[in-house]
Amino acid sequence: MLTLLRDLRRLRRVLDLAGSTHGGSLAVRHVDAGSCNGCEHELTLVSSPYYDLQRFGLGVVASPRHADVLLVTGAVTTRMREPLLVAYNAMPEPRRVAALGDCALGCNLLGTADNLAGAVEDLLPVDVRIPGCPPAPDAIAAALLELIDAPLQTKMRISATRDSRLRCDSRR
After folding, report:
1. Confidence at residue 84, expressed as pLDDT on a 0 to 100 scale
2. pLDDT for the residue 162
3. Dihedrals φ, ψ of 141, to 5°?
4. Helix or strand or coil: residue 108?
5. Distance of CA 52 to the CA centre of its chain
6. Could you name the CATH architecture of 27-168?
7. Is 135 in a helix, a strand, or coil?
8. Model-level pTM?
């Protein structure tokens, strides 16, 4: 095993692969609050070997008790309102919330009004907004990587390269 690790380190030096330039790491807990799964597909691409966010210190955890960031996709439905609040309250301080996709931001919501509790920022303090329907994997990766180095007091507004933010500007 040690020989394999040594060989991998040597191969990384030979190929001149970039390592982590970020100072820390983040544990991300993903919650689907009522999406169409478009954002989840793009989120899966972000964790693929092409982007390889694990080498920058980003990891997905199964429990909100181990999470630094709560990544929420989809408009919050009435049935997911309480579980979302329970997950948020279970996170240790300091905690951050990222809203991924137009539905989570309250734009072009999927579903009927009587089944929706609203946008994520109506229930939780959102630190990072990632617009798009669905957001590009590049935008998701950039937002999460910027979150590693951002001070805890700043609220960030991440913009996607798509036209989705034009449809949603009246909400913000």
Report:
1. 93
2. 43
3. -65, -45
4. coil
5. 15
6. 3-Layer(aba) Sandwich (3.40)
7. coil
8. 0.76
Identify whether the C-beta of residue 126 lies closer than 8 Å to the C-beta of residue 98: yes
Give per-residue burial for 30-59: e unless 16+ CB within 10 Å, then b: bbbbbbbebbbebbebbbeeebebeebebe
Cα 106 to Cα 102: distance, rounded to the nearest angstrom: 6
The token pair at 75 is 């408009």
User: Alpha-carbon distance 31 to 45, whole Å?
Assistant: 17
Residues of the chain with pLDDT under 50: 20, 22, 159-167, 169-172
Residues sharing a CB contact under 8 Å with residue 24, sequence separation 6 or more, in sequence order: 57, 148, 149
Q: Where are the domains of the chain?
A: 27-168
Take residue 89 and report the two structure tokens written for it: 């309250």
DSSP 30: E
